Every structure is written in structure tokens, then in C-alpha cells.
Amino acid sequence: MSHDIALTVNGRRVEVHVPVHALLLDVLRDRLDLKGAKRSCDLQVCGACTVLVDGAPVSACTYLAVEADGHEVLTVEGLGSPGALHPLQQSFIDHGAVQCGFCTSGMLLSAVALLDEEPSPTEADVMHHLRGNLCRCTGYRKIVDAILACAATAP
Amino acid sequence: MRVTRELVIEVPPEALWPILWDVPRMAACLPGCAEAQEVIPHSRYRARMTQKVGPISLSVPLDVEILAAEPPRHLALSARGRDPLVGAEISMRVTIDCEAVGTGARLSIGAEGQVLGKLGGLGQGIIQRKAEEALDEFGRRLARAATGEASG
Amino acid sequence: MIRPFDLRRPTALGEVGALLGEYGDAAALYAGGTELLLLMKEGFVRPRVLVDVKCVPGLDRVTAVAGGIEIGATASHRSVERSEAVRAHAPLVAGVARHVANVRVRAVGTVGGNLAFADPHSDLATLFLVFDARVVLWSLAGERELPLADFVLGPYETARRDDEILTAVRLRPWHAGAAGTYLKFGVHERPTLGVAAVLTLEADGQTVADARLALGCIGPRPQRLGVLETRLCGTPIADIAQSRTGVTDGAADAIDTLTDLHGSADYKREMAQVFLRRALRLAASRAMGQPVDARYPHTVVC
């Protein structure tokens, strides 16, 4: 069984024909060429596949593409643009919060969701929110600092 | 995984042995085990083991081999198989010992082995629990078959 | 790789019932899919039909009812965390919902899905026992209500018939003045151990009038500790708050624990003993109006 779905991805309307059992992660990566979201644990535990659907973080590896029909999806490619990075992206660079980069898109999108809802999070808020985003490189400190700094300097 | 069960039955070992040695009939006493077929009499059999853990159903075609038979006291067999759909591989050794006690018998059933593959990772504790329940029921059915046979 | 299936989106319970009746166990009820899709990806379940119940109106409502709470089956953990009704009448539930899994599962996963899946490692299935929770099961043949303790039968096994859908869980209010806590221990994605403790004091404020204890994640299903609850009645609350009493000694001996990747059955029994004492100390201090700020390694204190 296949479905025609229409969704907004990073602000642009997209129409695509997908099998009912297709996962959002595969449609984003393989059909729409948006490779930012990564397949890592494939069990919705690690957060590397995080994308936002109507502003809420979801594990794209365990989310049917047809569920996104009629909704807004934000991937890391939708944050800022090559010449004008999103403040969070800039903050990650400034704070050295990126090493191998594999967890980064998930971290950024989780942070976007957090700051949208809580513009002035405490450190405990940030750590709670990021609990489902795993990083093997940085030890998390700089990621948390980058997010807090971004929140502190937001207009 | 290792499970042992003991029960006392009211008939002597000689009354139980014909059931054990009728391997398809003995296999049918194990819950979820059906359609045991003879391949080489008293040596090799094929059976199918079906089990359910919540929403997960398992259906494993088993190769059964008789390892030792010392009538009427001891029977040992191995059972191996794979459910490719669920990704479970079963490899078991089962022993049945029957010791005369008064006019009856003490039946000791032991099952030792592994459930490998993805399903094995789901929870060895759950698998152990299921095996214990299955063996409990196996013993009860064997006992019923033996006493039924003896009185019939 | 998930195998293809037929996706149905009923907009009324009657349609759900008809689909379940038609397909039996070849149909799987589907809401958030945070458990179901994992099983389907592994090939452990291969339903021919997914019955998406998210479009059935009213199934996601969270409401206060007679001092208690009714949580609709398709309410997300996040909506329970944020519900004003829950925060007002059962704040501990909001606090625990806040820590279920991770932020993504909380956004997408549902309370009903969690209970109906009956994963032994479930915070809510454990916590709800101290609210005398009852689940509502609907089918074309009628509706029935079951105590949660009779609904969750074992690992991944519930009393739900193939033709039934879980529509809500109902939580009863505690006694006036009751104070409770939930401790969640573990380093994995799912909790290794969860313990809920609720204490109510006698009018003199000195001794325990009522106790509720639930232990979960360590055995085939969550359990209330009725024997210990009875023993606690009449115990001086200050003794419990200071862990001066031996009333919990040996309480874990009879607990049914299962070995798995979280640890051996013995380890879990030991941890149960430790965390029971901790949870009671915390609940007691709250009941006395002198809440302590307890921190334990790898433990979320709600």
C-alpha cells in the first residue's frame, strides 16, 4: 500500500509518494536528500535521527513517513543557511561543541525545540531535555554550554 | 538457560516408558509442540514448537535427535531449530529420568540450552520463565497420560 | 525492514471494534508506535493491519474526575506531564511522566500504548498501582473496567482480548494529607527499578495510617507490597523518615525478580531492599512536612 503525502519540509511544500511502511528517516535521507538526520541506534534511544514535527522532537527512525502528511518537518538543513547560521549553530562552533558531528543535528534540533518552549532554560532543564541525545565525543559539557550561551544572548 | 522439574507420579516407570518412547506422543505433551514426525525411528524426529510472548509469536521447526535411551529409566534428546522470521535460534538438551518410588515413580525433567538471536536478547529471564512454565505443564501432561494409560 | 501493512484510520470506536473483529490478532492497535514500530522493525510482530486510533475523538483527553484523574489511552506522556488537571490532583504523575524514556518518546508515545504493551520496565505501570488504577477496555460487546493489577499479567501480556481496545486509565485520589514519591533507578534507556511509596498519617501526625508501595521493572510485572503496607500501619513516621525501623527488613525476599540485561534476579532483589527504604524515608519526610532533598546515583527522584 502506498500513500501520496504532502508535507512542509524546512518551509517548503513537498509532495511525495511513499510506501505505507516507509520510515520518516528514510524518506528524508533517500527521497529528499536531507542527510542531516542519521540512523544510529535505530531504536529511538540515541537521538541522532531527531527531527521536529510541528515543533516537537521525534525519532525519525521509528516514525512512519505517512504520519508527517499535512505537517511541518524541520531538519538540521532548515536551520539557518550556509551564509547565515542559526544562532545555535554558531554557538556550537564558538564553544567547540562539535567533534565528529554525528550527534550534532539531533542535538541542535532538540535544542531548538527546547528554546522555542523555554527561552531561558536552566542547566538542569537543558540536561534533562538532552537526556535522550547521546554523544560519544564531547562529554556533553560544551554542548550544554553552547545552548545556555545561545539562550543567554537571545534578543 | 537451565530448568529442572521434579514430580511424583502414581505409576511405575515401566508404565511411563511406552509414552516416552512414542516420541511424537511424548512431544505432544510439551505445550506448543505439535506435529512431531518420525524421520528415523527412535533416532530422529521433526517437530514444530510454537510459543507466544505477548504479541510475539514464535514458530520453530525443530530437529530432534534421541541421544540416549535406557528403558525405563532415562531418555535424553536434543532439539535444535531456527525461526527465521523472528530471528530466534533454539538449541536444547532435554533429559527425562524416571526412578521407581514405592508403587509410583519420581519423574525428573531437565532442559538445558540456549535461545539465541534477536529474541534471545529480549530477556533471558522471560525465556527462563516460559521454559519453567512449559516444563511444568509437560510434566503434568506426561503424568496424566501415564496414569490414564495405566488405568485404561 | 518493516513489512508492508494495511493502515486504517477509524474515526469512531465502533469502527475500531469492527476492524478488530474482522482481523483479530492480524491487526495491531497503533497510536504513537514507539513500541509497536520497534517490534515491527525487528520482525518480531508482523501485523497485516495497523489500526491507527489517533483519529478517534476524545481518546486523548486527560480530565479530573471526582478528585481523581482519567487519562485517555492516546494521551501522550508529554500531555500528561503538562496537564493542569494532573498537576492539580496527582502532581506525582506529572512528575513521573516528565521522565519517561526521552523527550521524543514523551512527545509521540501514549499512556495507553505503554500500559497495553506491558513492558516490565515501565514507570507508569508501576506508579499507577499506588493510585488504585483501573483500565477501561472497550469492545463492540461492551465496556469493562479492570484493576491495573489484573490487566498486566506478565511480560508483554495483558488481559486485553483481541477484540478490545484500552480506552482510558482511571486513577483514584489518595487520602487527604497523603504524601508520596517515585524513585526511578537505572542507567539504561528503560528503568532498572521503580518504586512508588505513599504514606498517610493518623490525625495525631505521629504514626502511619495508610501505606501504599509498588515496585516495578524488576520482575515480570509491577507489584503492590501488601504485606509490608500492612506492617507499616501504626509505625511511627519519624522512625521511617530516619530509617530507624526494621519494618522493611526482609521485605524484598518475597519479591518476584527476573534476570535480564539490567541485572540478575538477586541484584534486583538487593536493590529493591535499598530503594524501598529510600522511598519510604522520602515519603515519610514529605508526610511530616519536612521534605528532604535526596539524591542517589543514577536515580530520578520524583
Q: What descriptors fit this protein?
A:
heterotrimer; A: 155 residues; alpha+beta; Ubiquitin-like (UB roll); DNA polymerase, domain 1; 5-stranded mixed beta sheet; 5 helices; 5 strands; 33% helix; 17% strand; globular; C: 302 residues; Uridine Diphospho-n-acetylenolpyruvylglucosamine Reductase, domain 2; Uridine Diphospho-n-acetylenolpyruvylglucosamine Reductase, domain 3; Enolase-like, domain 1; 3 domains; 5-stranded antiparallel beta sheet; 12 helices; 15 strands
Would you kindly provide a written description of the structure presented here, covering whatever features stand out?
The complex is a heterotrimer of chains A (155), B (152) and C (302). In chain A, strands 2-1-5-3-4 form a five-stranded mixed sheet, with helices on both faces. Chain A starts with a strand and ends with a helix. Chain A is of the alpha+beta class. Chain A has two domains: 2-77, Ubiquitin-like (UB roll), CATH 3.10.20; 87-153, DNA polymerase, domain 1. Chain A has helices spanning 24-31, 87-95, 104-117, 123-129, 141-153; strands spanning 2-9, 12-19, 50-53, 56-59, 72-74. In chain B, a hairpin with a 4-residue loop joins strand 5 (74-83) and strand 6 (88-101). Chain B is of the alpha+beta class. In chain B, helix 1 packs across helix 4. Chain B is globular and about 45 Å long. Chain B starts with a strand and ends with a helix. Chain B has one domain (2-151): Alpha-D-Glucose-1,6-Bisphosphate, Chain A, domain 4 (2-Layer Sandwich), CATH 3.30.530.20. Chain C is 31% helix and 25% strand. Chain C is built from twelve helices and 15 strands. The relative contact order of chain C is 0.12. In chain C, the strands form four sheets. A five-stranded antiparallel sheet of chain C has the order 4-5-10-6-7. In chain C, strands 14-13-12-11-15 form a five-stranded antiparallel sheet. A three-stranded parallel sheet of chain C has the order 1-3-2, with helices on one face. Chain C has 302 residues and is of the alpha+beta class. The A-C interface holds A 1, 3, 19-21, 23, 42-45, 47, 50, 56-59, 62-64, 66, 110, 113, 128-129, 131-133 and C 2-7, 33-34, 37-38, 40-41, 78, 98, 101-105, 107-108, 189.
